[in-house]
Every structure is written in structure tokens, then in C-alpha cells.
């Protein structure tokens, strides 16, 4: 993929490219492009739109994520330094960010998540049972997307009959290629619908509170003030974005990985206690989240002379696939001892849902292999991953 990277001169002595992370590509191409860029640069300038800096040095990426004073979350979208929208808690900086994290923490703690395990396992098992009598399926559409979305809707207290609508919105918002939605109109329509949906859910709970996360959150106070409808809405939108696509993408990678590596599949079938390490390794090797931050002051990072107000892209793949950090970094190693990856981020914004995500992933891999141990990638399909967050677009397996 690096051959498609078009040089565009230099900026302040640093190499510049027409680098656009929104474009899709063949499976693993984005991760491999990061490997190449990290091998030759510690940082560079993208000249797409208003331009932004990209750090490709593994330790520097992690350092920036931890240094919230210098790298603010006021914008987390490299192409939009001055967003008109707010996502809570992702776009808040400490100290108000800490208050939200404290309030949310108990719903996402290891013990709160563990208490939901039987329910989560049952949902996964039922969905896989419905597939096992067939001889194949697009596992993204028929399992990887449905399972975590349903769990998430239950957690938030959203009506389960809305599941198909949510799956449609996720598709329209996150999965359309440029050709399918050239002017972004379909994406805008879906965003407006999601926004109106949450407005209505909030209004319903103001009238009649229920026993769910949304109703509980509406009763919280921050600095003695009740949470406004605007902030509740910003919270719902972030949860939608953060919780809806990430676990499906990871389940997609896990099934792809074990289909493409039957020898490792045989190992986890013989010894399921290897699954947790396998899941961590898949999160690390297939790293798909690319955070961004807005500099609060002039600073040099990855050799880039960043000015206050400029955006910096911080791809997690360069840390997670860094040969300076891991032996044979590009391999999923079911026996790796330390998997101190940063697939869930690092610093104050480290993923709030990581315990839930881990549980869902482990359950998905365990229950799948208990029921459908023998499967293969159906021939004749082009395996493609989305840009932005690198999820496999569709994956037909046969069994
Ligand atoms: C494998 C699945 C997941 C991955 C890889 C993942 C990854 C991440 C990453 C890298 C961040 C930090 C972003 C940044 O630094 O800008 C993050 C933040 C966040 N994630 Fe996840 N996530 C996953 C699943 C989930 C789930 C299931 C939920 C909720 C149900 C969730 C909720 C959040 C929230 C609320 C934040 C913002 C935290 C804050 O700003 O303090 N995530 N996630």
C-alpha cells in the first residue's frame, strides 16, 4: 500500500504526503503500511484537507496519549481541529473528564462486567446455534455485529426490537465507501436519525426513569449541577461510536485469523486456556484504532514541530507492532508472556469498556469454537478492510 502514498514535499523540514486514513484497502494493508512508515520515519505531515501531523514512533505515540496537558482531547478527529460536536467523556480533558470516569466506572468495572457473563454467554451461544445448522455465512453480518450490539443495547437500556435499526445506522455511518456515499449525504442522514433517537430516549427517561444506565446517568450531578440533556446526548453519541463497532471489528479479526491459521485453531481447540492470550494478541497485531489529539502548545514529537492548535494522529499500530517492544511483533503468539499492548489506548482516555470488550471477545471465540470448530474462508471473495477504523468489511466462512 505504501506505493500509493504520494509525496507532497516537506513541511518545516519534515516529509509530507497525501496520506488519507479514510480510504479502505486489502486486509492488513493499513497495518503493513504503518510498519513501513514506522521503519522509515518517526513522524510525517499529511497534507490532506488542512493537514495534520502523524507520529510513527511507537514510544512517542504512547507518551503523547499520556500527556493530556500537551495533547488535548478537545478534538479527536485529525481532519476536524474545531469540531462543532461534543462526545462525552472522549472529548473532555481532566479534571471534568475524571468526574465522568468516576461516575461511569462502576458500570464497567471488572466485577460489574463479570456479573453479566452468563447472560453474555447465552446470547453468543444462541446466535451461533442458529448458524451451525447451515453450511456457511457472512460472519460479520450474522454474528460479529449482532452479538455485541445486542449486549450493548441491553446495558444502555435501549429496546431490543431496535437492533436491526442500529445495525443499519452503524452500516450507514461507518461502513460506506466513498463511491457509495460520495457527498456524505447518507452518513449525515443516519447521524441525524441517531441523534433524534437518543433525544427521544432521553426525553422518555426524564418523564419516567427506568433501571438502566441512561436513567441512572441522568440522575448524576457534576459540580453540584444535574447533567444537562445536551451532555447526556453527547454521552449517548460517544457510547454509540465507541461501543458499537469496536467489538464487531475484533470478533471479525479473530474469526479471520483462526480461519487463516488452522494450525493455531487446532491449538486453541486442544487447549482453550490459550484463548485469552490469543485474543490479546489479535487485538495487538490487528490494531485498528487511530486516535488523534490537538496540541495545546508548540511541541516537538516524533521529530515533528507541532504548533499549538494543530492536530496530531497517533496510530496505535505503530506501538503495538513495534519491533523494539516485541519479539516477532507481527505474529499472533498464543504463548506470548507479556502482551502489554495499547489496543485499548493509554493514559486518561484508556478504553472505559475494555473489561466488557475482553469478556465479549473471549466468550465469542470460546462459544464459536465449541459449536463450529471446523471452518474455512469461502473461496472467491475479495477481503477488504475499511479505512479510519480497520475492520474487515465482510467475511464469508464455510463449515
Ligand atoms: C475490542 C473492543 C474495543 C477497543 C479496541 C476499544 C478501543 C478504545 C480506545 C483505543 C480508546 C481510546 C481512544 C483515545 O485515546 O482517543 C477507547 C475509548 C473508549 N471506549 Fe473503547 N474499545 C473497545 C470497546 C469498547 C466498548 C465495548 C465500550 C463500551 C461499551 C467502549 C467504550 C469506550 C469509551 C466510553 C471510551 C472513551 C473513554 C474516555 O474518553 O475516557 N469501548 N476505546
UniProtKB/TrEMBL annotation:
This is Cytochrome P450. InterPro entries: Cyt_P450, Cyt_P450_B, Cyt_P450_CS, Cyt_P450_sf. Keywords: Heme, Iron, Metal-binding, Monooxygenase, Oxidoreductase. Belongs to the cytochrome P450 family. Pfam families: p450.
Amino acid at each position: 500500500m505504501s506505493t500509493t502514498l504520494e509525496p507532497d514535499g516537506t513541511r518545516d523540514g519534515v516529509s509530507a504526503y497525501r496520506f488519507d486514513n479514510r480510504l479502505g484497502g486489502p486486509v492488513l494493508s493499513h497495518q503493513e503500511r504503518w510498519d513501513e512508515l514506522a521503519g522509515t520515519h518517526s513522524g510525517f505531515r499529511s497534507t490532506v484537507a488542512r493537514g495534520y501531523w502523524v507520529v510513527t514512533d511507537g514510544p512517542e505515540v504512547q507518551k503523547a496519549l499520556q500527556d493530556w496537558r500537551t495533547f488535548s482531547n478537545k478534538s479527536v478527529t485529525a481532519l476536524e481541529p474545531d469540531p462543532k460536536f461534543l462526545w462525552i467523556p472522549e472529548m473532555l480533558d481532566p479534571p471534568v473528564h475524571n468526574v465522568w470516569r468516576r461516575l461511569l466506572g462502576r458500570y464497567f468495572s471488572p466485577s460489574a462486567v463479570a456479573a453479566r457473563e452468563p447472560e453474555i454467554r447465552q446470547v453468543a451461544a444462541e446466535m451461533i446455534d442458529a448458524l451451525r445448522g447451515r453450511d456457511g455465512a457472512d460472519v460479520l453480518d450474522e454474528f460479529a455485529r449482532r452479538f455485541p450490539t445486542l449486549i450493548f443495547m441491553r446495558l444502555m437500556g435501549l429496546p431490543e426490537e431496535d437492533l436491526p435499526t442500529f445495525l443499519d445506522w452503524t452500516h450507514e455511518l461507518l461502513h460506506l465507501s466513498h463511491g457509495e456515499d460520495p457527498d456524505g449525504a447518507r452518513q449525515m442522514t443516519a447521524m441525524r436519525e441517531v441523534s433524534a433517537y437518543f433525544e427521544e430516549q432521553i426525553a422518555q427517561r426524564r418523564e419516567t426513569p427506568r433501571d438502566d444506565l441512561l436513567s441512572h446517568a441522568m440522575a448524576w450531578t457534576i459540580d453540584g449541577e444535574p447533567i444537562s440533556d445536551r451532555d447526556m446526548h453527547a454521552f449517548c453519541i460517544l457510547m454509540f461510536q465507541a461501543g458499537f463497532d469496536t467489538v464487531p471489528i475484533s470478533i471479525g479479526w479473530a474469526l479471520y485469523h483462526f480461519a487463516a491459521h488452522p494450525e493455531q485453531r487446532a491449538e486453541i481447540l486442544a487447549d482453550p486456556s490459550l484463548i485469552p492470550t490469543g485474543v490479546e494478541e489479535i487485538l495487538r497485531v490487528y490494531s485498528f484504532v487511530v486516535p488523534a489529539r490537538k496540541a495545546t502548545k508548540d511541541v516537538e514529537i516524533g521529530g515533528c514541530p507541532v504548533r499549538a492548535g494543530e492536530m496530531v494522529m497517533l496510530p496505535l499500530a505503530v506501538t503495538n507492532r513495534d519491533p523494539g517492544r516485541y519479539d516477532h511483533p507481527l505474529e499472533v503468539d498464543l504463548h506470548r508472556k507479556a502482551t502489554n499492548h495499547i489496543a485499548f489506548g493509554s493514559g486518561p482516555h484508556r478504553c472505559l469498556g475494555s473489561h466488557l470488550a475482553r469478556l465479549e471477545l473471549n466468550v465469542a471465540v470460546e462459544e464459536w469454537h465449541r459449536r463450529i470448530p471446523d471452518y474455512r474462508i469461502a473461496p472467491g471473495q475479495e477481503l477488504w478492510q475499511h479505512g479510519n477504523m480497520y475492520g474487515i468489511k465482510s467475511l464469508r466462512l464455510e463449515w
